[in-house]
Amino acid sequence: ETGVTQTPRHLVMGMTNKKSLKCEQHLGHNAMYWYKQSAKKPLELMFVYSLEERVENNSVPSRFSPECPNSSHLFLHLHTLQPEDSALYLCASSQGTGVRNEQFFGPGTRLTVL
Amino acid sequence: KQEVTQIPAALSVPEGENLVLNCSFTDSAIYNLQWFRQDPGKGLTSLLLIQSSQREQTSGRLNASLDKSSGRSTLYIAASQPGDSATYLCAVRGNTGGFKTIFGAGTRLFVKA
User: Fold this and answer.
1) Among candidates A41, A99, A105 on the partner chain, residue whose Cβ is nearest the Cβ of B44
2) How far from chain centre, in Å, is Cα B113?
């Protein structure tokens, strides 16, 4: 266990549904990240939060909406997704966003959009 | 733009064999390089983190090297075991693109008993 948990572990949703992914870290870290891992493609950084403030939005479509209510919790709200959004969504945390800070990853949420 | 390439894409070896996984990157202006392990459908587990000022890191049967000037890193696994079967990812943290960490596509390793 890395100290980063994600729920749900699996999610199937229709294109008109609204759902949320949750990430929680128990490491006392100040930075949290959302990544997308599509089949046979490298991980893609989506969002970065530092001290509950969004510091990076990597050209992600607005149908993905992040929320960071405190430094321990990170959400990814999903609405009107497309089938190509099906992927493994990984959350990570680090002590800070400085380049020497190691990221710790959660187990991921496997999302399938029908 | 930083690009990270991992070769081979897949590797199958008999148990007990020593093996090397390769990672190359196009921009040598990096701060660190990290090797991860990912089991099927699971998250990433950090194996080794090499800062730009370092040449190698070791942990148990794993040794990672870094040659910034040539844009290469290798992950050496000694005496491979079936439990080593997983996908190994290389990730580079650079000074381009803000906070972005660039990942390779991974090498899928299968160690046969």
Assistant:
1) A105
2) 23
Contact B54, B62 (CB under 8 A): no
Interface with chain B: mutation pick from A95, A105, A110, highest number of B CBs within 10 Å: A105
User: Token pair of A48, please?
Assistant: 């970065």
> Which chain A positions have a beta carbon within 8 Å of B99's beta carbon?
45, 48, 55-56, 97
**Nearest residue on chain A to B46, judged by CA atoms?**
A104
pLDDT tier at B98, thresholds 50, 70, 90? low
**Per-residue pLDDT tens over the stretch A10-68:** 999 998 889 999 999 999 999 999 999 998 788 898 999 988 778 777 789 999 999 99
Strand locations in chain A, DSSP E? 4-7, 10-13, 18-25, 31-37, 44-50, 53-57, 64-70, 73-79, 87-94, 104-105, 109-113
Name the residue among A41, A58, A105 with its Cβ closest to that of B43.
Answer: A105
Per CB-CB distance under 8 Å, the chain A contacts of B51 are 100
pLDDT at A97 over 80: no
Q: Residue A66: which of A83, A81, A84, A52 has the closest Cα?
A: A52
